[in-house]
Write a structure and sequence with these properties.
The structure is a homodimer of 308-residue chains. By secondary structure, chain A is of the alpha/beta class. Helices cover 50% and strands 13% of the residues of chain A. Chain A folds into two domains: 7-180, NAD(P)-binding Rossmann-like Domain (Rossmann fold, 3-Layer(aba) Sandwich), CATH 3.40.50; 184-300, 6-phosphogluconate dehydrogenase C-terminal fold (Orthogonal Bundle). A six-stranded parallel β-sheet of chain A has the order 3-2-1-4-5-6, with helices on both faces. The termini of chain A are far apart.
Amino acid sequence: MTEQVKFDRVVIVGVGLIGSSLARAVRERKLADEIIGVDRDADVIARAKKIGVIDDGGTTIEKGVKGADLIVLSTPVGAINEVCEALSSSAPDDVLIIDVGSVKGSVAKAAAALPDRLHFVPCHPVAGTEQSGPEAGFASLFEDRWCILTPLAREDAAYQAAVKKAESLWIGIGALVEVMDVQHHDLALAVTSHLPHLIAFTLVGAADDVESVAHGEVIKYSAGGFRDFTRIAASDPIMWRDVFLSNKDAVLEVLGRFSEELAVMQRAIRWGDGKALEDAFARGRSLRRAIVDAGQEKDVPNFGRDKE
Amino acid sequence: MTEQVKFDRVVIVGVGLIGSSLARAVRERKLADEIIGVDRDADVIARAKKIGVIDDGGTTIEKGVKGADLIVLSTPVGAINEVCEALSSSAPDDVLIIDVGSVKGSVAKAAAALPDRLHFVPCHPVAGTEQSGPEAGFASLFEDRWCILTPLAREDAAYQAAVKKAESLWIGIGALVEVMDVQHHDLALAVTSHLPHLIAFTLVGAADDVESVAHGEVIKYSAGGFRDFTRIAASDPIMWRDVFLSNKDAVLEVLGRFSEELAVMQRAIRWGDGKALEDAFARGRSLRRAIVDAGQEKDVPNFGRDKE
């Protein structure tokens, strides 16, 4: 049992869904004396301050990070190099830096380039909703969700202590922590997150492009299955653009496998191979059951949409 | 305003999720004096009787349909020819027959082959959950969902009256009714229901087959998006096998379009074309908004999984 880490001054860079959820969680659990927001959009800072997510804030990293003992980077992944450049000169000595990005390869590279006086522990909380902005966040977002840490290959005691602090922070706000190799993270998440999003975005586009089926029909009959895809296809376009640009190799690898599998299904339909279809379809139920049993999904039919 | 149709004796052939939901809805709205179940599985009949979904029942259509003024076919679509053969000799004169199948081409063909003394109006309530069996049904399943009717090309007054009765029944249990051409139905539903199911089934299989990513990891990190797909991939394998075997042409058509679109996305990722990705991704939000506005989806983030 390690002692719960607490911070004097937490600086959240990028006050969107994830950043504001982390701010709320830290505040609710009393893990920080002060929470400062930094966002390139001054309106976001004003709104976040108004709803009490941050105590104060501004639009420049250099000013914002003064006196911080924890800096949380919750911008889209594509901004990581620019943000790290600003931090390398302005962030205070011995500060713990974490990020929340869905890709870790590009983040780890930027983190490794920082001076050793800064302790950047790349993190990925596997949690989120389809909504964006500081208003969309909520304190319980990370509860019972996994947060994957991919620490740098630094063996100095200061960095090791920073990794422990990062773990303590995530556990302190209800998450489950796993430490993982960067490459493995990017492949595993390409499977469980990036490919599903790409497929959902693609299906939504393709469905709306069948000329002989009206836009209104796609909407009216979406309860047949289509609407399930639209939740994740409603996710932030910028965030997801950056994920695919930053995790190209792993995404192309798992996409290739998906396409092969889809070709097999296509042939089974064309040839009328009912046995092959039935066998393939039968796998879904047990996998969903396992996800429910692991506490990663609620055990209600139809996502609880229906009145019983 | 037409008068609400009522029935003396409703016979449900296939007492699963949809059949038992219809039975419950009809009973709750007091639209039938007696509800009889027919299922080839005697255990299903016993269970449905025990929980009060049906008044009585058995395993043979010929016996079950005696005295019926409404017969509801809620078996998998693949059983339609066999069921219609049994009905052609045993069903009483002037009975209204409806089905609930997700494909209408094969059903309409079987329906047209019945003697004119039987009035089969093919129906498709676009509603369902990932669960199966008589216990999974509930009376409100069809409320505010669309039910598509694809009546036969029969102009006799008896058949026209039967179509009106079928409409009245669906409206009576809370559904919205649309009349549509058979071919158009099968294409529109290939887009909004059949393709999404095929994609979900395929993704679930492909994800679980990446050797270097453990089965346990797929489950642990499923909150990254994958779990959304597992709901519809947990649907009844036999029902869905029959859908793909019965609606081959339309499914292959929309699958071809999806694959093209996916290839475009794949190229955008390979070439690092962020603009193309961002533009494609931006469509999802407005479509989801439209589905929520049309009352076909609940307006809660993350399917309401989270505690706020």
